[in-house]
Amino acid sequence: MSKYTPSRHNRFASLTRDLPPAKRRMLRRNLMFVTITLSLIGLLTLVAKANAAGGAYVVDDGTINAPGECNLDIWYQSLRHQGSNHGAVFSPACTFAGLPWLQVGAAIERSREDGHGETQLSPQLKAQLWNREDLGLQLALATSAHFALNRGHAFDGGDISLPLTYQPLQSLRLNFNAGWAHAYDDGQQNHHWTWGSGFEYDLGERLTLVAERYGQRGGEQAWQAGPRLHLGANLDLDLVLGGQLNEGRDRWLTSGATLRF
Description:
Elements: H1 8-15, H2 21-43, E1 70-79, E2 86-95, E3 102-113, E4 116-132, E5 137-148, E6 155-169, E7 172-185, E8 188-202, E9 207-216, E10 221-230, E11 235-244, E12 251-260
Antiparallel strand pairs: 1-2, 1-12, 2-3, 3-4, 4-5, 5-6, 6-7, 7-8, 8-9, 9-10, 10-11, 11-12
Protein backbone atom coordinates (compact mmCIF):
# COMPACT_ATOMS: atom_id res chain seq x y z
CA MET A 1 0.00 0.00 0.00
CA SER A 2 1.42 3.37 -1.00
CA LYS A 3 1.69 6.07 1.58
CA TYR A 4 0.05 9.42 0.76
CA THR A 5 2.43 12.40 0.75
CA PRO A 6 0.90 15.90 0.69
CA SER A 7 1.92 18.02 -2.29
CA ARG A 8 3.91 21.23 -1.86
CA HIS A 9 0.84 23.23 -2.80
CA ASN A 10 -1.23 21.53 -0.09
CA ARG A 11 1.50 22.06 2.51
CA PHE A 12 1.73 25.75 1.57
CA ALA A 13 -2.06 26.07 1.78
CA SER A 14 -2.15 24.48 5.23
CA LEU A 15 0.58 26.79 6.53
CA THR A 16 -1.11 29.92 5.23
CA ARG A 17 -4.72 28.90 5.82
CA ASP A 18 -5.24 31.44 8.63
CA LEU A 19 -3.77 34.40 6.69
CA PRO A 20 -6.01 36.93 4.92
CA PRO A 21 -6.18 36.42 1.11
CA ALA A 22 -4.14 39.58 0.37
CA LYS A 23 -1.30 38.45 2.64
CA ARG A 24 -1.35 34.94 1.12
CA ARG A 25 -0.99 36.41 -2.38
CA MET A 26 1.85 38.71 -1.28
CA LEU A 27 3.67 35.85 0.47
CA ARG A 28 3.30 33.62 -2.60
CA ARG A 29 4.76 36.34 -4.88
CA ASN A 30 7.69 36.99 -2.53
CA LEU A 31 8.49 33.28 -2.12
CA MET A 32 8.39 32.81 -5.89
CA PHE A 33 10.88 35.66 -6.44
CA VAL A 34 13.23 34.40 -3.71
CA THR A 35 13.13 30.87 -5.21
CA ILE A 36 13.94 32.16 -8.69
CA THR A 37 16.73 34.37 -7.31
CA LEU A 38 18.37 31.56 -5.36
CA SER A 39 18.12 29.26 -8.38
CA LEU A 40 19.84 31.84 -10.57
CA ILE A 41 22.74 32.11 -8.13
CA GLY A 42 23.51 28.45 -8.69
CA LEU A 43 23.22 28.80 -12.48
CA LEU A 44 25.38 31.91 -12.94
CA THR A 45 28.34 31.22 -15.16
CA LEU A 46 28.67 34.54 -16.95
CA VAL A 47 31.39 37.09 -16.26
CA ALA A 48 29.94 40.40 -15.03
CA LYS A 49 31.04 43.67 -13.55
CA ALA A 50 29.49 45.61 -10.68
CA ASN A 51 27.49 48.72 -11.47
CA ALA A 52 26.42 51.73 -9.44
CA ALA A 53 23.31 51.70 -7.25
CA GLY A 54 20.09 52.58 -9.02
CA GLY A 55 16.72 50.98 -9.61
CA ALA A 56 14.55 51.05 -6.50
CA TYR A 57 17.33 52.48 -4.33
CA VAL A 58 16.75 56.09 -3.26
CA VAL A 59 20.35 57.18 -2.62
CA ASP A 60 21.80 58.18 -5.99
CA ASP A 61 25.40 57.76 -7.16
CA GLY A 62 27.70 60.36 -8.71
CA THR A 63 28.04 58.66 -12.10
CA ILE A 64 26.04 58.76 -15.33
CA ASN A 65 25.79 56.39 -18.28
CA ALA A 66 28.65 56.44 -20.76
CA PRO A 67 27.96 58.52 -23.92
CA GLY A 68 25.67 56.59 -26.26
CA GLU A 69 24.49 54.14 -23.56
CA CYS A 70 21.11 53.69 -21.90
CA ASN A 71 19.62 51.76 -19.00
CA LEU A 72 16.12 50.59 -18.19
CA ASP A 73 15.04 50.08 -14.56
CA ILE A 74 11.87 48.16 -13.68
CA TRP A 75 10.75 47.30 -10.16
CA TYR A 76 7.71 46.23 -8.16
CA GLN A 77 7.20 47.10 -4.50
CA SER A 78 4.62 45.96 -1.95
CA LEU A 79 4.10 46.60 1.75
CA ARG A 80 4.70 43.46 3.81
CA HIS A 81 1.62 43.80 6.03
CA GLN A 82 -0.66 45.56 3.53
CA GLY A 83 -0.55 43.56 0.32
CA SER A 84 -3.19 45.79 -1.31
CA ASN A 85 -0.73 48.74 -1.21
CA HIS A 86 1.81 48.33 -3.98
CA GLY A 87 3.48 50.09 -6.89
CA ALA A 88 5.40 49.46 -10.09
CA VAL A 89 7.97 51.72 -11.80
CA PHE A 90 9.30 51.81 -15.38
CA SER A 91 12.33 54.13 -15.72
CA PRO A 92 14.55 54.54 -18.82
CA ALA A 93 17.60 56.87 -18.96
CA CYS A 94 20.16 57.67 -21.69
CA THR A 95 23.33 59.71 -22.22
CA PHE A 96 23.60 60.92 -25.81
CA ALA A 97 26.93 61.13 -27.63
CA GLY A 98 26.34 64.83 -28.40
CA LEU A 99 25.87 65.65 -24.68
CA PRO A 100 28.32 63.31 -22.91
CA TRP A 101 27.95 65.11 -19.56
CA LEU A 102 24.12 64.91 -19.35
CA GLN A 103 21.85 61.93 -18.65
CA VAL A 104 18.18 62.30 -19.60
CA GLY A 105 15.52 60.02 -18.16
CA ALA A 106 11.99 59.60 -16.87
CA ALA A 107 10.09 57.42 -14.43
CA ILE A 108 6.51 56.22 -14.86
CA GLU A 109 5.02 54.98 -11.59
CA ARG A 110 1.69 53.25 -11.06
CA SER A 111 0.76 52.94 -7.39
CA ARG A 112 -2.26 51.72 -5.47
CA GLU A 113 -2.96 52.63 -1.85
CA ASP A 114 -6.11 51.99 0.18
CA GLY A 115 -8.03 51.08 -2.97
CA HIS A 116 -7.03 54.25 -4.85
CA GLY A 117 -4.75 54.07 -7.88
CA GLU A 118 -2.54 56.84 -9.26
CA THR A 119 -0.13 57.22 -12.18
CA GLN A 120 2.81 59.63 -11.93
CA LEU A 121 5.30 60.82 -14.55
CA SER A 122 8.70 62.15 -13.42
CA PRO A 123 11.10 63.60 -16.03
CA GLN A 124 14.72 63.48 -14.78
CA LEU A 125 18.04 65.16 -15.60
CA LYS A 126 21.45 64.25 -14.21
CA ALA A 127 24.65 66.14 -15.04
CA GLN A 128 28.18 64.96 -14.31
CA LEU A 129 29.97 67.83 -12.51
CA TRP A 130 33.26 66.17 -11.56
CA ASN A 131 34.88 62.84 -12.35
CA ARG A 132 38.29 61.99 -10.87
CA GLU A 133 38.77 58.28 -11.34
CA ASP A 134 42.32 58.55 -10.03
CA LEU A 135 40.90 59.73 -6.68
CA GLY A 136 37.83 57.49 -6.81
CA LEU A 137 35.47 60.51 -6.72
CA GLN A 138 32.45 61.36 -8.87
CA LEU A 139 30.04 64.26 -8.30
CA ALA A 140 26.77 64.93 -10.13
CA LEU A 141 23.72 67.21 -10.04
CA ALA A 142 20.36 65.40 -10.28
CA THR A 143 16.90 66.94 -10.58
CA SER A 144 13.39 65.70 -11.29
CA ALA A 145 9.78 66.92 -11.37
CA HIS A 146 6.65 64.91 -10.58
CA PHE A 147 3.27 65.08 -12.35
CA ALA A 148 0.12 63.12 -11.46
CA LEU A 149 -1.68 62.09 -14.64
CA ASN A 150 -5.14 61.36 -13.27
CA ARG A 151 -6.10 64.37 -11.16
CA GLY A 152 -6.79 68.06 -11.72
CA HIS A 153 -3.75 69.45 -9.92
CA ALA A 154 -1.08 67.69 -11.98
CA PHE A 155 2.14 69.16 -10.56
CA ASP A 156 3.08 67.11 -7.51
CA GLY A 157 6.50 68.53 -6.66
CA GLY A 158 10.15 68.30 -7.55
CA ASP A 159 13.59 67.70 -6.06
CA ILE A 160 17.26 68.48 -6.62
CA SER A 161 20.30 66.78 -5.12
CA LEU A 162 24.08 66.48 -5.26
CA PRO A 163 25.10 62.78 -5.38
CA LEU A 164 28.73 62.04 -4.49
CA THR A 165 30.42 58.65 -4.91
CA TYR A 166 33.72 57.75 -3.26
CA GLN A 167 35.45 54.45 -4.07
CA PRO A 168 38.18 53.77 -1.48
CA LEU A 169 38.57 50.14 -2.63
CA GLN A 170 37.98 48.34 -5.89
CA SER A 171 35.16 46.37 -4.26
CA LEU A 172 33.59 49.19 -2.21
CA ARG A 173 31.67 52.30 -3.25
CA LEU A 174 30.21 54.85 -0.84
CA ASN A 175 27.36 57.13 -1.95
CA PHE A 176 26.32 60.39 -0.27
CA ASN A 177 23.39 62.66 -1.15
CA ALA A 178 22.37 66.15 -0.04
CA GLY A 179 19.42 67.94 -1.57
CA TRP A 180 16.08 69.72 -1.35
CA ALA A 181 12.54 68.54 -2.11
CA HIS A 182 9.28 70.36 -2.76
CA ALA A 183 6.00 68.45 -2.55
CA TYR A 184 2.24 68.94 -2.32
CA ASP A 185 0.69 67.01 0.56
CA ASP A 186 -3.13 67.13 0.65
CA GLY A 187 -3.01 70.58 -0.95
CA GLN A 188 -0.27 71.89 1.35
CA GLN A 189 3.17 72.79 0.02
CA ASN A 190 6.05 71.24 1.94
CA HIS A 191 9.78 71.91 1.63
CA HIS A 192 12.42 69.62 3.11
CA TRP A 193 16.18 69.30 3.07
CA THR A 194 17.02 65.73 2.10
CA TRP A 195 19.99 63.50 2.83
CA GLY A 196 21.13 59.96 2.22
CA SER A 197 24.10 57.62 2.47
CA GLY A 198 24.73 54.12 1.25
CA PHE A 199 27.31 51.58 0.20
CA GLU A 200 27.83 48.88 -2.45
CA TYR A 201 30.17 46.01 -1.65
CA ASP A 202 31.13 43.44 -4.28
CA LEU A 203 31.18 39.81 -3.17
CA GLY A 204 32.96 38.57 -6.27
CA GLU A 205 31.99 39.33 -9.87
CA ARG A 206 28.39 38.13 -9.69
CA LEU A 207 26.99 39.49 -6.44
CA THR A 208 26.91 42.93 -4.79
CA LEU A 209 25.43 43.86 -1.42
CA VAL A 210 23.71 47.26 -1.33
CA ALA A 211 22.43 49.16 1.72
CA GLU A 212 21.28 52.73 2.32
CA ARG A 213 19.69 55.08 4.81
CA TYR A 214 17.94 58.28 3.80
CA GLY A 215 15.47 60.86 5.01
CA GLN A 216 14.16 64.40 5.15
CA ARG A 217 14.80 67.00 7.79
CA GLY A 218 11.74 66.95 10.02
CA GLY A 219 10.18 64.20 7.89
CA GLU A 220 10.39 60.56 6.91
CA GLN A 221 13.49 58.46 7.52
CA ALA A 222 13.95 54.99 6.04
CA TRP A 223 16.44 52.28 5.08
CA GLN A 224 16.79 49.71 2.32
CA ALA A 225 19.17 46.79 1.76
CA GLY A 226 19.55 43.66 -0.32
CA PRO A 227 21.58 41.59 -2.80
CA ARG A 228 22.17 42.52 -6.45
CA LEU A 229 22.83 39.67 -8.88
CA HIS A 230 24.81 40.37 -12.06
CA LEU A 231 23.63 38.27 -15.01
CA GLY A 232 26.38 39.12 -17.46
CA ALA A 233 27.51 42.69 -18.09
CA ASN A 234 24.10 44.06 -19.07
CA LEU A 235 21.50 42.72 -16.63
CA ASP A 236 21.15 43.04 -12.84
CA LEU A 237 18.46 41.64 -10.54
CA ASP A 238 17.64 43.26 -7.18
CA LEU A 239 15.84 41.94 -4.12
CA VAL A 240 15.37 44.80 -1.64
CA LEU A 241 13.95 44.90 1.89
CA GLY A 242 13.15 48.33 3.30
CA GLY A 243 11.41 50.02 6.18
CA GLN A 244 10.56 53.31 7.85
CA LEU A 245 12.42 54.41 10.96
CA ASN A 246 9.65 56.65 12.29
CA GLU A 247 5.86 56.83 12.49
CA GLY A 248 4.21 53.58 11.35
CA ARG A 249 7.49 51.68 10.77
CA ASP A 250 6.10 50.13 7.59
CA ARG A 251 8.15 47.42 5.87
CA TRP A 252 8.26 46.68 2.15
CA LEU A 253 9.78 44.20 -0.26
CA THR A 254 10.92 45.18 -3.76
CA SER A 255 11.98 43.06 -6.71
CA GLY A 256 13.56 44.73 -9.72
CA ALA A 257 15.77 44.49 -12.79
CA THR A 258 18.18 46.82 -14.60
CA LEU A 259 19.00 46.35 -18.29
CA ARG A 260 21.84 48.27 -19.98
CA PHE A 261 22.11 48.70 -23.75
